[in-house]
């Protein structure tokens, strides 16, 4: 945790080379994977990443604007977003906030979050946690919300029935 960015990077790189040469790389990897990082810590790191490299943020802004504009142009009362690689759903809070500010727009948001399963006994735990977090955010901004999570090792095998599409 001490030193400037270059020194910290050099330390991590040297530790990796040392583990590789000593043949302990897989144990080091397993030990690092066992350390769980909370969603709050991930969000904090993600915010730092977005401030240092805004390209991802710009892409999300354009995607959100495109979805938002097409939703407003439609007469459907529900927006259904299918998000392949939803991870923590960090893209959607600003979208939800904008949706709450439109009085004559869609009245319900449905998100189907698709992600690779996590290792362990609860492969869809992070996906479900993302859904709960987005539901709390929607409740705070008075947006009706429905969430469907799909944990799939191969996204090409996701069937249309898995998306639980509805007429509206």
UniProtKB/TrEMBL annotation:
Protein family per UniProt: Belongs to the GRAS family.
Keyword Metal-binding: no
Organism: Helianthus annuus (Common sunflower)
Keywords annotated in UniProt: Transcription, Transcription regulation
Region annotated Leucine repeat II (LRII), chain positions: 129-161
Pfam families: GRAS (PF03514)
Identification of the protein by name: Putative scarecrow regulator 2
Motif placement: VHIID: 79-83
Entry keyword annotation includes Transcription: yes
